[in-house]
DNA sequence: CGCTATTGTTACAAAATGGTTACAGAAACC
DNA sequence: GGTTTCTGTAACCATTTTGTAACAATAGCG
């Protein structure tokens, strides 16, 4: 399993919690949600391997502030989610050692940016990963996940995929791929490329992502740049 | 005439030099080759309007390093071509102000990518898309869009269009087109050209853009700027 | 206006190309 | 040495591409 930053979401409003979790997942994090302070505390006692916690101040059971020392003790940085304009909570939270706070209602993007910044500061920066649709590619680990679960790519398939990533949005000829994957002096069937592309497409559901360029070769199509 | 980036190739091995120049031309650059340091230096004194230089370290006459100050003085970025494992040269080259180096034997594609990157950094990025009316042509993607949506050009149609673009505003005879698209030794009906032109015109609404030159052939009409 | 030379358009069948599967040799791993 | 995994190749088949021919339309020209 690939190492993704794990984020604890402690928030009693289901709608907000779900929204946050969905966005975290989409951004490539792992999320775990708890809806009251007691459950969260219990969970932390069993497993404290979280990289960051999003903590609502107003909670049923133990409130947010009472969870802070526990989290601080486990060295888990905390971002407080405070109701609008609740300056008292804000100040109290920061004094108690929260890393940051964010006022509800907030922009999801802003939350993600703050999370990224804190993880970076904490040296827990997520591995550099290349995302294409629901697929994450981790070059250093030579690992690929799809929808969060690992996909077993064979070495050559991975190399091939990396070459596509390296030259994304460029039409690569079979000869270029052959030269890039085996070296210039290798003379093999260019059709071998097709087989590898077929295997990658199948495993990653990349039928539209790796486009066939007739008579030429293939091109990895990545929208956002 | 189109403003294409001009690249100076200073390399004594004819085979390598030719190969590089061919690929540069194919990629849409203009290339000028010199086979020893003295000639290159003379040429630079006369005309320094190059956008980038590929410089072999080992050269007859003045060697690569001695040319560096001249090139730097003319603000021409340099990519060193070093023999495999010649780490000393590499370090010396980069310290002397070369933008990049590449170790022989190298992948042509990689060289092209590095060139692209440096030109981009120098603000001399060549147009990655050629626009004609509402049509965008992306040569390295082998893709064409019209009004933002992709138009599926068949391989031969794309090649044909690229030939027109390459020689825009120049009347091309059917024989020239035939030779350029299939190779000189191909003997086919010249009328086949007409069919392809017809198909391109239809797909891109290019009835006025690709003008018929009676008894000769066709010409792609583009208003400069 | 006819006539001719030339170009535009369409349809089609041959050829080329790509997706897929199965498999054998190679490599890696006990 | 035996087993498993990896990977390059060949083969098969469906699809796409494309060259050509045939026919329609147009322009040039007296």
Strand order of the largest sheet of chain A: 2-1-3-4-5
Oligomeric state of the chains?
Answer: homodimer
> Largest chain-chain contact?
A-B, 14 and 11 residues
Structural class, judged by helices and strands of chain A? alpha/beta
Classify the helix fraction of chain A into a percent range.
40-55%
Low-pLDDT segments of chain A: none
Helix/strand order of chain A? EHEHEHEHEHEEEEHEHHEE
Q: Roughly how many Å apart are the termini of chain A?
A: 28 Å
Largest sheet of chain A: 5 strands, parallel
| Binned strand content of chain A | 15-25%
Count of DSSP strands of chain A: 12
Principal-axes shape call of chain A: elongated
* Contiguous helical run count of chain A: 8
Radius of gyration of chain A, taken over Cα atoms and rounded to an integer in Å: 22 Å
Average pLDDT score of chain A: 83
């Amino acid at each position: 399993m690939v190492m993704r930053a794990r984020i604890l979401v402690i928030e009693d409003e289901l709608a907000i919690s779900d929204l946050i979790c969905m966005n975290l997942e989409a951004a490539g994090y792992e999320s775990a949600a708890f809806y009251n302070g007691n459950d969260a505390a219990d969970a932390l006692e069993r497993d404290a391997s979280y990289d960051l916690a999003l903590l609502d101040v107003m909670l049923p059971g133990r409130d947010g502030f009472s969870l802070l020392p526990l989290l601080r003790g486990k060295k888990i940085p905390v971002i407080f989610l405070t109701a609008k304009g609740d300056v008292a909570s804000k100040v109290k939270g920061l004094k108690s050692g929260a890393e940051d706070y964010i006022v509800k209602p907030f922009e999801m993007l802003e939350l993600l940016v703050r999370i990224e910044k804190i993880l970076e500061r904490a040296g827990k920066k997520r591995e550099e990963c290349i995302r294409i649709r629901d697929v994450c590619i981790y070059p250093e680990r030579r690992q690929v996940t799809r929808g969060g679960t690992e996909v077993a790519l064979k070495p050559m398939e991975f190399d091939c995929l990396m070459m596509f990533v390296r030259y994304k949005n460029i039409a690569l000829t079979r000869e270029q791929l052959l030269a890039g994957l085996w070296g210039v002096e290798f003379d093999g069937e260019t059709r071998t490329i097709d087989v590898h592309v077929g295997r990658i497409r199948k495993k990653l559901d990349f039928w539209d992502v790796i486009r066939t360029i007739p008579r030429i070769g293939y091109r990895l199509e990545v929208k956002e740049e």
